[in-house]
Write a structure and sequence with these properties.
By secondary structure, the protein is an all-alpha fold. It has 10 helices and no strands. α1 crosses α6. The radius of gyration is 20 Å and the shape is globular. The N and C termini lie far apart (69 Å).
Length: 205
């Protein structure tokens, strides 16, 4: 019996085109939301024809889900990097700093995530339930352990995480407003100092 044919790896052109499509789609989805995005807009942004888009993806939803899957991996990485053996205060603040850096470096991804959740997470719900929730549960247990040991002030761990997400992702999701209202050349530097002080004061036992 012959062995099944090996799976062929995508060519460089195929890899390049997929990357072009996903990058264009990220721009379109983050600016127009899922409902406002169209394959025509994505094709125009990518510089490819609509049939070429459909050669690589089944349709708009397939592209959107692919982007969300990639996003979740990078979005959850800082939460997974919290070290249970590290200094509790510094570990939480390092997480705040990393999330703030992501708002600077990945603003389109932040808006993509926000738009999906605002719509009720119709395409991301399985990830929220099976990937995000267990990770948040584990992180909440870790923080509760630090609180019980007297290393952090008594706060609700989940509300703490919500506050971190809200304050850091604001700088990506409301970037246009921030740039109008702030005169600082480096908004990130001021934001980092402010959030560091705020959360440190909140969490000192």
């Amino acid at each position: 019996m012959n062995d099944p044919s090996p799976i062929r790896k995508p060519s460089r052109i195929q890899q390049r085109n997929r990357k072009l499509i996903l990058d264009a789609a990220l721009e379109v989805f983050s600016n127009h939301g899922y409902r406002g995005a169209t394959l025509d807009l994505i094709a125009a942004r990518a510089g490819l024809s609509k049939p070429n888009i459909l050669y690589y993806f089944e349709g708009k939803e397939d592209i959107h889900v692919t982007l969300l899957n990639q996003l979740m991996d990078s979005w959850l990485a800082p939460l997974r990097e919290i070290d249970p053996m590290g200094d509790p205060m510094e570990e939480v603040l390092a997480y705040v700093h990393r999330k703030l850096e992501m708002s600077r470096d990945l603003p389109r991804e932040s808006r993509l995530f926000a738009n999906e959740v605002l719509q009720g997470a119709p395409r991301m719900a399985p990830h929220l339930e099976t990937v995000l929730k267990p990770l948040v549960d584990d992180t909440a247990d870790l923080i509760e352990g630090w609180i019980a040991a007297g290393k952090l002030a008594a706060v609700d761990p989940r509300h703490l995480l919500f506050s971190i997400w809200a304050t850091t992702q604001h700088y990506a999701d409301f970037d246009a407003q921030v740039r109008v209202l702030m005169d600082e050349a480096d908004v990130q530097e001021g934001a980092r100092a402010h959030l560091d002080m705020m959360f440190r004061r909140l969490l000192v036992p």
